[in-house]
Amino acid sequence: MYQAVYVDGMKHLLAAFPQAWPLYTSSTSVYPQTDGSTVVEASPAEPTKDTGRLLRGAEELALQNGGTVARLAGIYGPGRSFVLKNLLEGTSGIEINDGAPEGRLLNQIHADDAASALVHLVTQKLPGIYNVVDDAHMTQGQCLSRLATLFNLPAPGIKPPDAARKRGWTHKQVSNVKLRQTGWTPHYSDYFEALLDDPKLASSILQLVSTAEAVPFHRAENIVLIGLMGSGKSTVGRIVAHMLGFQFIDTDHLIVDQARCSIPEIFEREGELGFRQRESRVLRQLLGRRHTVIATGGGIVTQPVNGPLLRHLGFITWLEATTELLARRTAANNDRPLLQGEESPRVKLQRLIEERSPLYKALADLRIQTDELTQPESAYGVAESARMFFSKRVSKPN
Ligand code: S3P
User: Fold this and answer.
1) Which atom of ligand 1 is closest in space to residue 230's alpha carbon?
2) Is-contact 174 107, C-beta < 8 A?
3) Closest Cα to residue 222, out of 318, 310, 116?
4) 3-state class (DSSP) for residue 5
5) What pLDDT is recorded for position 248?
6) CATH class of domain segment(s) 223-393
7) Ligand 1 pocket test: which of 248, 273, 336, 340 has the largest number of ligand atoms within 8 Å of its C-beta?
8) How many A from CA of 332 to the centre of ligand 1?
9) Measured between alpha carbons, how far is 189 from 187 in angstroms, rounded to an integer?
10) Could you tell me which of 263, 246, 264 has the C-alpha nearest to residue 255?
11) 294 lines ligand 1 (CB under 6 A)
12) How far is 333 from 88, CA to CA, in rounded Å?
């Protein structure tokens, strides 16, 4: 198959498009090094596996025709990240041997950066071989233990290198210096930067794993409060935190701290979209938290990308209240831009209840109708339910 797809495929393309600039997207797996050395384009690329040898064959065809060979490291991005997926599914292990006591070195590239590198190589018409890899220097052990901390999981154990790997077991630091010198820079300099900056990466992998029935979806030991403006998330949340000895965090406050301006100012300068992007980012920054009550902004559920993150972050309680109560509670201040328009706050709140109730319902582990309760009573309900939720879990987080 490799012969048919890569080598014969390349021949057919060259024959069909004799005038075109050949760009062959190869793989850093053509470098067989296992000694942890730094590998540049001039380093030996004599693969030990047939698959690698066939990739080299296709590379040669591109080079003979004056074209470009891009050797791509492991591609990850939204919907695709084997390191994170395997960790969440509990199947990862750190592959160590005498030469790699912390596991092999990982060489990765974000899909967007792989694409930008390819565009750069063809638009700049740069012939020859280029490695396409980010700036990280990271062993599998370092990567997995940091990820385990971020996702509240125990660090994976060790295992011997997998001799059956399709592209061979290697341990090497692939260098991007040559490509960088031509003016290309990766947007995500390493995997952990991408986890924070890419709006979809963490969320999409959590979503992927949550639909695989075989593994229980991992929930961090926090309490997340959702519900409309004025439903009491911050007040009740503070009481819950006090009852359980948890920390308290309010996503709106984190956004304001980071933006160094008020929510109405953010809405004015960046629009609701800008505010929503900040809100999602704050959720990603909360990865790794434990023993925290997280009060969220009323609209956090409107962004589908936030769903898997919220669910992973903890036990979710939806605080409900009637329009009358919400209107009364929110009347006191004017720091909520969504209630400032032409429409009366009461009508707007009623519309938001209708729009958002299905979204709150889909995420909630617990739903509390708060109108008839004092806030300490609501808090007691949340705290007790969360305690039961976490104590019933088969594998307790940490
Ligand atoms: C919003 C709710 C607010 C705040 C922003 C938008 C919303 O938070 O995030 O004004 O869309 O419902 P609270 O629910 O804490 O008031």
Assistant:
1) 16
2) yes
3) 310
4) helix
5) 98
6) alpha beta
7) 336
8) 15
9) 6
10) 263
11) no
12) 43
pLDDT at 166: 62
The predicted structure's pLDDT at residue 213? 66
Burial profile 332-366: b = 16 or more Cβ within 10 angstroms, e = fewer: eeeebbbbeeeeebbebbbebbeebbebbeebbbb
Domain boundaries, the chain: 2-212, 223-393
Q: Give me the architecture of the 2-212 domain, per CATH.
A: 3-Layer(aba) Sandwich (3.40)
Q: Does residue 229 have its Cβ closer than 6 Å to ligand 1?
A: yes
* Mean pLDDT, residues 52-75 taken together: 96
Identify the DSSP state of 216: P
Ranges 48-62, 204-218, 284-298: which has the least confidence: 204-218
- Region 10-38 average pLDDT: 95
Counting ligand 1 atoms within 8 A of each CB, the residue from 252, 255, 352, 353 with the most, and so the one to mutate, is 252
Ligand 1 geometric centre to CA of 142 (Å): 38
Q: What is the mean pLDDT of residues 146-150?
A: 97
Nearest CA to ligand 1 atom 12: 298
- Ligand 1 atom index nearest CA of 233: 15
Whether residue 369 is predicted with pLDDT greater than 80 in this model: the reply is yes
- Find the mean pLDDT for residues 350-372: 97
Tell me what the mean pLDDT of segment 295-300 comes to. 98
Q: Note whether 125 and 182 are within 8 A (CB).
A: no
For the ranges 51-55, 95-99, 125-129, the one whose mean pLDDT is highest: 125-129
Residue 250 CA, closest ligand 1 atom number = 15
- Ligand 1 atom with least separation from CA of 255: 9
**Dihedrals φ, ψ of 109, to 5°?**
-150, 135
Q: Report the pLDDT averaged over residues 18-43.
A: 95
